[in-house]
Amino acid sequence: MSSISGKAMTHLQQLEAESIHILREVVAEFANPVMLYSVGKDSAVMLHLARKAFYPAPPPFPLMHVDTTWKFREMIRFRDRMVAECGLKLIVHVNEEGVQRGITPFTHGSALYTDVMKTEGLKQALDIYKFDAAFGGARRDEEKSRAKERIFSFRSANHRWDPKNQRPELWNLYNTRIRPGESIRVFPISNWTELDVWQYIHLEKIPIVPLYYAAVRPVVERDGMLIMVDDERLELKPGETVEYKSVRFRTLGCYPLTGAVESTADTLPAIIQEMLLTRTSERQGRLIDHDQAGSMEKKKQEGYF
Amino acid sequence: MAHQSDLIEQDILAYLKSQEEKSLLRFITCGSVDDGKSTLIGRLLWDSKMVFEDQLATLESDSLKVGTQGGAIDYALLLDGLQAEREQGITIDVAYRYFSTDKRKFIVADTPGHEQYTRNMVTGASTAQVAVILVDARKGLLTQTRRHSFLVSLVGIKQIVLAINKMDLIDFDEERFQSILADYRLFAADLGFSSIAAIPISALNGDNIIEPSANTPWYQGPPLLNYLETVQLEDDARQQPFRLPIQWVNRPHLDFRGFCGTVAAGTIRPGDELQVASSGKTSRVSRIVTMDGDLPEAVAGQAVTLTLTDEIDISRGDLLTGIGATPLHTRHPEAHLVWMSDEPLQIGQLYLVKSAAAVTPGRVTRVEYVVDVNTLEQKQAPTLGLNGIGVVRLELDRPISLDPYRENRATGSFILIDRFTNATVAAGMVIAIAPLELREKQITPEPEGTDAVGNRIITLSGAATSGPGVSLVDLTRQWGTLEFQLSPGFMEHLGKGNRILFRLRDLGQLPAVAQLAYEQALSFEFDRTADAVSILLFKRDTALQPRSYDDDGTGI
Ligand SMILES: Nc1nc2c(ncn2[C@@H]2O[C@H](COP(=O)(O)OP(=O)(O)OP(=O)(O)O)[C@@H](O)[C@H]2O)c(=O)[nH]1
Ligand SMILES: [Mg+2]
């Protein structure tokens, strides 16, 4: 992304510079930052930017994956490979309490499951390791309450977000002051759109989980979504059959809650082409957003990422 | 995203190539409550086909439930994403939205019109290049229109669209349009805008937003989107003297010392000579390091890592500059301040001042004047309250490197942070170095013998502490246990709001100062930096409202 003499910076170069500035600011100002690494395309871009920001040093913070135990197996493989290649420390946190109570997406419904395994799990991990800043790969164009969130987003000691009382955020001067126990969630790619992320992955040749590319995979149709049968824990309901279809994923999460789209796009340009020509947003494939109106705002207030 | 859909379908690689070259424009919508800002952006997103089908379904059901249009589509709901906003039908916080056309990418910040949320409007404005100021054609200019216009001019936005909205409600009356425009030009004459483009629109119905409207045959100018796509951005940051605020020093091993930061102005190449603003030390650029290989040059806006040819002392908060273009390096900036906290500015109280990478405690010593946003008149006032805008003098605990804001937005801006609540309480824009009279005066006292138990007596006289502001009493060369004696003028001097800064040799001198504070009922602030231990002694102004502080662990 180097700039050519005399030419104005392109929008991607500007976005990249802004993100690197944010990453460095956190490392300079916080004692114990962490990067929440969800293994998806946004995390891939965020990690790539972190490597650029601190080159030739590796990013001076660990990655943390809040694992629900229901992630696609390919995601876990990819995660471990990336961490090894980048020479980074990875913390994997699972909400063991939730596991012991037998909370699964099938038995307890997506809302409770997400709350326990993702939100609670994240809060536990932040408390255990006493992280004062946590990078997240959320973007403002994803959802209407995210569109309102600051880049440096303050969280109380109980991890709560107060959307009606956010700190002003002026220029690129970020207020990083917190008291013990409080923390800041930092979103370095706040201003990137889905297209920006894909274009950047394309230009910078950033590796992503193969699930983003179309391939023939076993799926069942459930509640109007195509759910991939990623392991034996997915039990078929009466009338459901496993079909083999050429599918891919626009976003990645827990396999029982993530809808696949039928597609033959098996290259990056083809994915981008498909994305540009569809008329639905990427979050549509996420079951958790549909639970109730304003649900993302509510989840965020309670400490969801 | 139906733009260029043919090219997307036929040659995606060519399309992607064409996207790489696009420029980015950041703009805001602002103006008074209910003038139609959110509706305008909602409509713009809608008409440029940026609304997805699932979002449309949500919008339709939301419009039925909480819309202001009697069940018809309420475009503002695409922007007002917080529950509280939807319930009240207003914007509370700034929403960032993204869209693109064949020519440009846009980041728009839709800001709230309510005075109560002015700080959120300033948040959006601080990073914008163009402002779309809305006016309700039925109401004309209101106080908030003027306040927002003034704020827009303060943060350095030069290109303005005056969008005269709700033309559908006044039968697209040209005369009314012209008279509002004339009012505005009169008001804005001194605001330093380089251009004001007035457009008659209906945000609700889409007139003159994307296509020229048949309802305004008398209007010859471009529709809003066309203006935004073609407005020339006045960006000469690269031609200005080089500025790099150091954010982070990258030291992975002993053989590499990289200085990281975002270039605030100018252009730099390996071999160029640079200067550290605080120390005056110079060196040359050795390499511009990136993960993709070294660069032959870096320009304003890029986030870079430089290595230098010499081992000179540079740390976070330093400003690297080109030779012969020195910035202000001062403890006493004079600045515009926009106050953003419910609790008014406390003169003399210590806040944290954060500028590009530098953070230092500092205080406002004086409000020179406040600005009446309706008339733009300067008025005398003792302090600044919520949404107050004025010119103040600051006194920082240590000098930092700055530029006048009008010369450089990145190195001329700062924020004030309340040390107790950690709230961001003000936005500051540097004007110049404050006039001389407020500078500190330094005294190096000599002990006048010892008392009965062998303490060395130091007299603090009114004369030694004359002159307003802070006097520095240097105790770093005093040995033994100290005791202070006061001359008559001393307490009177502190009573006027003046302060004494003791620079200590070590902690052994602390009890003597504490004893003095105890006996005379004074307050003090303790500070330890890398090279000094100091105590600031002052008399709390009892006329100010007492406030309750939570313990923030600093022990003050
Ligand atoms: N007739 C008509 N009504 C409009 C027009 N533009 C906006 N409105 C209506 O005016 C009301 C206020 O619109 P908003 O877009 O919420 O106003 P706003 O400026 O964003 O308000 P705040 O953000 O709260 O300051 C809504 O009921 C809109 O439907 C217009 O061009 N014509
Ligand atoms: Mg609004």
What small molecules does this complex bind?
Answer: guanosine-5'-triphosphate, magnesium ion
Using DSSP, what is the number of strands of chain B?
31
Biggest interface: chains and residue counts? A-B, 73 and 88 residues
What would you call the structural class of chain A? alpha/beta
Could you say which overall geometry of chain B the principal axes of the C-alpha atoms support? Answer: globular
Q: Give the CA-CA distance, first to last residue of chain A.
A: 29 Å
Q: Spans of chain A of 5+ residues with little confidence (pLDDT < 50)?
A: none
Major sheet of chain B: size, sense and barrel closure?
7 strands, antiparallel
CATH superfamily of the largest domain in chain A: HUPs
Rounded mean pLDDT score of chain B: 88
What features would you describe in this structure?
- The complex is a heterodimer of chains A (305) and B (556).
- Chain A has eight helices and ten strands.
- Chain A is α/β, with parallel strands linked by helices.
- Chain A has two domains: 197 residues, Rossmann fold; 79 residues, no CATH class.
- Chain B has four domains: 226 residues, P-loop containing nucleotide triphosphate hydrolases (Rossmann fold, 3-Layer(aba) Sandwich), CATH 3.40.50.300; 86 residues, Translation factors (Elongation Factor Tu (Ef-tu), domain 3, Beta Barrel), CATH 2.40.30; 111 residues, Translation factors (Elongation Factor Tu (Ef-tu), domain 3), CATH 2.40.30.10; 98 residues, no CATH class.
- Chain B starts with a helix and ends in an 18-residue tail after the last strand.
- The site of magnesium ion has 5 residues of chain B, from helix 3.
